[in-house]
Amino acid sequence: MVEILKAVIIVCVAFSLINCTHKAKPGKSKSAEFDPSAIPVDPDIYKKVTFVDNSKTQAPYLAMNVDFSSLGDVRKGIEAKEKITLQHRGEAHITVISPPEYDQLKSVLTMELINEVALLNRIQETPFEIVCLGRGRLQADNKNLSTYFIVLDAPGLTSLRHTLATLYKTNGGQPNEFKPDEYFPHITIGFNERDLHIQDGVVKDKSSCFSQMQLKAQ
C-alpha cells in the first residue's frame, strides 16, 4: 500500500505541475459572447480560495471550494428572470466525489487519503470554464421543484477522479463500482425547495442549459 501510494503521489505531483500551467480563461464563456440577455457573473468566481475539508460532515464528500460572494449577482439574475426566490447553503463548491460515490470508495479509501491526494493535485488551483447556466426541474409531492447551477468544463477535476479511481482499483476496489468519467462538474446557485441531483433524474451538464452567462468587466 505504501509503495502504491508513493507511485500515486508521484503521478499527482506531475499532474499538479501540468495543471498549474493551464490557467482558466476568465474573459470568455463557451456559451456567452457579448449577449445582453446573459446572466452576469463576477470574475472573482475564478479567485483562489481555501480548501474545505468535508470529511466530518454527515455525508462526506470531496469538493473544490469556490468564492461564494461572487455568485450573488447570478442568484439575483435568476430570481429576476424566473420570478422566484432561491434558497442557498451560504457557500459554493464544485463537487468532485459525491456522498454516494464516497460510499462506494470508502471500503478501500479513507476520506483523509482522498483529501491528501486532492491537495497534492492542488485541487484549489484547478482551472475550469463556464459553459452556461443550467436548470433542473422535478414534480414531486404536488410541488414544482427547481434547482439552478453553473455548468462547467473542468477536465482537471475529471483527471483527479481518474487518479482516485486508479488508487481505488489498485488496492482491491471493484473496477466497475466507481466510474470517473460519469461526472458533471457544476456550481449550485440555489433552489426553491431542495437541491436536485442525478438520483432525481437531473443531469447537470450542457443539456440542462437555459441561459448564457457573461463575465462582468473588471
How would you characterize this protein structure?
The protein is of the alpha+beta class and 218 residues long. The protein has one domain (2-215). Helices cover 29% and strands 22% of the residues. It is built from five helices and eight strands, in the order H-E-E-H-E-H-H-E-E-H-E-E-E. It has helices at residues 2-20, 72-82, 99-105, 111-120, 155-170, and strands at residues 39-41, 62-66, 92-97, 129-140, 143-153, 186-191, 209-211, 213-215. Strands 6-5-4-7 form a four-stranded antiparallel β-sheet, with helices on one face. A two-stranded parallel sheet has the order 1-8. A two-stranded antiparallel sheet has the order 2-3. Helix 1 (2-20) packs antiparallel against helix 5 (155-170). The longest helix is centred in the N-terminal third of the chain and has 19 residues, at 2-20.
On the 0-100 scale, what is the average pLDDT? 86
Distance separating the two termini: 48 Å
Q: Provide the helix percentage.
A: 25-40%
Rg calculated over all Cα atoms:
18 Å
* Class of secondary structure makeup: alpha+beta
List unreliable stretches of 5+ residues: 13-34
Order of helices and strands: HEEHEHHEEHEEE
What is the spatial order of strands in the main beta sheet?
6-5-4-7
- Share in β-strands: 15-25%
The total tally of domains equals 1
Biggest pleated sheet: 4 strands, antiparallel
**Overall number of strands:** 8
List the total number of helices: 5
How would the global form be characterised?
Answer: globular
